[in-house]
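quick one, 403 residues, struct below
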Amino acid sequence: MAKSPVEVWLWLLMVMQPYNPKTNEILAQCGGDATAASKMVRDGQFPFLNEKERKRAEQVRMSAIRPILEMCSKNGIRIVTLDDDEYPNALREIVDPPILLFTAGSLEGLNEQTAIAAVGARNVSDYGRAAAEGILTPLAKMGIAIVSGLAVGADSAAHRAALMGHGRTIGVLGCGILVNYPAENAQLKRDIVDNGGAVISELLPTARTYAAYFRHRNRIISGLCSGTLIIEAGEKSGSLLTAAHAIDQGREVFCIPPHDIFSKRYSGVVPLLREGAVPVFGYTDIVERLLSDYSDRERILNMLDEPEELSKEETRKPQPAEKKSAKAAPPAEIPKSAIEDILTGLQPDEAAVLKAIAEKPAGMDELVERCGMEYSALSETITNLELFGHVTRGMDGSYYVST
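---
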């Protein structure tokens, strides 16, 4: 089936309006062919259309579409439609995907990249900001895309954490892409695009803010990703809607544990944790859960090492998932000869940390002092050692050498 022209998709959007479940129902009946769907809408062949939709089908003409195309061209906005190869596959799989995305920046390569959503309160605490940076920056360094809503507070912290890790981040707007909202994030939007990310919206470029738009855009944030991290949320936080969408979409939900279990500031994450959300104490908690999914596992392992390195060094191959049970108890002592064999295939930082653990098992705080490394650098190095099965974490929180 040939791809439908962008003009046809725009006509369908203007008639049916963004986030209208009827649009996807119509497309399904037409085999995803927007040209056929538009013709049937225009000819009144769908009895379930309401009066406003029928009237727009009669009134919207090409003369109303050309100015939008010119506006997008002038401002460097691309229109990615549901039948484009660049359209994110993960988003295409949800029940009600947007039929097109107005895009500043690029989505190219996102289908080959694991993505994690990170959302939270607008009045995020210093604890939330620090946690976002400590968890998301290492993920971004690994090559995992960070997706958020470009709101003030936790969303902004998530985007900035990704930029600090020189990673890719995607901002999903609840307004038109040319609307300067929130005004204080204008520079952040530019930084996201300039650093290889994208800012997207399913709304016409000049669409103003409206409460319902922000609720609808939450399904896009979670829909783009393998999982959603709730940084911080009160009982009525909008980020809980994103978590609900993630659950409905069959995606993982992660939560940063509350800084204060008695504070209303954090009360929104408590029910999620009780219902099975993954508690996140460090970015390795997210990585380990992603490794349990085959498609994410392959992408993440490709991020960690060049394929030829993996084929050369048997000791650097990831251990089977069944080995994770080794964390239940400290492993037996490893012969020095086996440790020397492992060291030959490691990077200098990895070798130094492994030597320290081999001398005496220890937790993160002690290893920071013994290895003379920053906490974030040590955490990243230990994650690599864990992923390749060289160290395991015991029930006491100490790390041990394993084979």
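The chain has three domains: 1-74, 110-291, 314-401.
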